[in-house]
Amino acid sequence: MNKKQYQKYINNFRRNFTQFLRPGIGLSCHVYPSRDGGGILEFTMGESVENDDIYKEESSTLGEALGNIKQNAFTGDFGGITFGGTNTILEPNRIIYIKDSNKKEWNEKAAHTDVLNLLNKGQRSQK
């Protein structure tokens, strides 16, 4: 995948998601591309957060890319981890998506579905 394809997903995600945020809340994205065409998107939101997209150096695998992100869902050696589809990690003020190289994971419909899934998770946790 190229930068344009990552950016298109990010723009679609941001357009779909920010309508549910309070005014003044920004949504930045760090992009960790993977040589196999997948990538990790680390969205951070908050009042002092700029709507900025920062592209990191390409990693050989998604597991290697995950090793570059401080997160609490996985520990150990990430070299042997493989991911399929879209995987979501929710942490305070952060949403981390680990997406494989399937083009269906990166289109406009996927961005819309990812936002709906986030909102549904939020509703379930409030019950």
Report on this model:
This protein is of the alpha+beta class and 127 residues long. The chain has one domain. 31% of the residues lie in helices and 24% in strands. The chain has three helices and five strands; from the N terminus they run H-E-E-E-H-E-E-H. The protein has helices at 3-17, 62-66, 108-126; strands spanning 26-33, 39-46, 53-55, 86-91, 94-99. Strands 3-1-2-5-4 form a five-stranded mixed sheet. A hairpin with a 5-residue loop joins strand 1 and strand 2. The termini are far apart. The relative contact order is 0.19.
Write the layout of secondary structure elements.
Elements: H1 3-17, E1 26-33, E2 39-46, E3 53-55, H2 62-66, E4 86-91, E5 94-99, H3 108-126
Parallel strand pairs: 1-3
Antiparallel strand pairs: 1-2, 2-5, 4-5
In short:
This protein has 127 residues and is an alpha+beta fold.
Descriptive terms for the model:
globular, 31% helix, 127 residues, single chain
Going across the biggest sheet, name each strand in turn. Answer: 3-1-2-5-4
User: What's the domain count?
Assistant: 1
Counting copies of identical and different chains, the oligomeric state is single chain
Radius of gyration, in angstroms, nearest whole number: 14 Å
The rounded distance between the terminal residues' Cα atoms is 39 Å
What's the helical proportion of residues? 25-40%
Query: Which residues form runs of ≥5 with pLDDT under 50?
Result: none
Number of helices: 3
